[in-house]
Amino acid sequence: MVSAAETTPRSETTAKKRIVVAETLGYCWGVRRAVELISAAANPEAPIAPIGDIIHNPQIVERLRSQGVVGQASVNDALEQGFRRVAITAHGMGPHLAKEANAAGLELIDTTCPLVVKVQRLAEKLVRQGYFIVVYGDHWHPEVRSVIGWANTSKAIAAKKIEDLPWNSPRGKEGPGLVTPPRKVALVSQTTKNIDELAPFAAKLQAMVIPNGGEFRFANTICEPTSERQNALKQLVEQDRVDLILAIGGRKSSNTARLAEIGNLMGVTSFHIERPDEILPEWLEGRNTVGITAGASTPDDVIESVVDVLVGYGYEAPEGGIHPVDPEYVPAY
Ligand code: SF4
């Protein structure tokens, strides 16, 4: 018997409006773990104050708030608000936080992602070995600040471009206004950065450091879940020929912004959205295949609500839905 699909004229088949979901998207291992830890500890009778945003996702922040988990800017603020329990978020904190909590007699719940802990300890070790530490990342980001906090030295800085460095010339050069790097420099990265931007930065920094007997150490500390999300998006663009990409995630989520950036750089119109009601009908005009990706702090139900809105616009739901979580998965350290 001939199936309906086999008798459908080709032009009609290709005109079908469909949704393609990236192979890996949404909650990363570390954020899922942090939300699970904090939810398990939550008790409205004994509220918890995570210091900073527990997660860059307003929907989850609201959900946790109803369980007595309410972010505060500092241990002092938490104390003033009467909290007796504080938490370190998945992004981590410098060692000062545990000391402050301990001194104030507060219970501390540490949900730092083990992959961030790895970078913190590496920075600490490299400092002991005499390296000046450069952290490739956003200087204001809690993770970067935590890594610099653990490095515990004035010889550590955050940089995203060569101009952010305190040096302007390769070692061995001399002249008025020239500032050269010290002999030993090590580079690590914020875990959520893009390797396509980190690699050229590393090459330029190395070219400044190694002349004249300089030593350069480079550890690519972009985490495996971040790389997987970026690679899955590239695959979506290359294999599924999407016409539009929606990168779903909180407004403050830098890894979601990076996903939309990658999509645009690959030539596909890409939007970073926080909620399904931000989708404008004109974005969908003449676009038959919509690709979906989501940042590391975007919960499954938010992704599903975006799919539902697209289905309302006449798109076919993705086969097999959004991809299930493997409870056994642990990323490579
Ligand atoms: S993005 Fe990577 S390092 Fe950051 S919380 Fe997720 S798994 Fe951990």
Write structural notes for this entry.
By secondary structure, the protein is an alpha/beta fold. It has three domains: 9-27 and 224-312, 3-Layer(aba) Sandwich (Cobalt-precorrin-4 Transmethylase, domain 1), CATH 3.40.1010.20; 29-112, 3-Layer(aba) Sandwich (Rossmann fold); 115-218, 4-hydroxy-3-methylbut-2-enyl diphosphate reductase, catalytic domain (Cobalt-precorrin-4 Transmethylase, domain 1, 3-Layer(aba) Sandwich). It is built from 13 helices and eleven strands. The strands form three sheets. It has a four-stranded parallel β-sheet, sandwiched between helices. α7 (114-128) runs parallel beside α8. Residues 1-13 have low confidence and may be disordered. Iron/sulfur cluster (SF4) is lined by residues 28-31, 90, 113, 115-116, 191-192, 223, 225-226, 296.
Reported by name, the CATH topology of the largest domain is Cobalt-precorrin-4 Transmethylase, domain 1
Runs in which pLDDT lies below 50 for 5 or more consecutive residues are 1-13
Q: Based on Cα principal axes, name the global outline.
A: flat
Helix content: 25-40%
H/E series, N to C? HHEHEHHEHEHEHEEHEHEHEHEH
> What's the CATH class label of the largest domain?
Alpha Beta
Separate helix tally: 13
What is the C-alpha radius of gyration, as a whole number of Å?
A: 23 Å
Residue-averaged pLDDT, rounded? 91
Q: How many discrete domains?
A: 3
Distance between the amino and carboxyl termini: 52 Å
**CATH-level-4 superfamily name of the largest domain:** 4-hydroxy-3-methylbut-2-enyl diphosphate reductase, catalytic domain
Ligands, deduplicated: iron/sulfur cluster
The CATH architecture of the largest domain is: 3-Layer(aba) Sandwich
Strand content: 5-15%
Number of strands: 11
The helix/strand class is alpha/beta
Note the main sheet.
4 strands, parallel
Strands of the widest sheet, in order across it, are 1-11-9-10
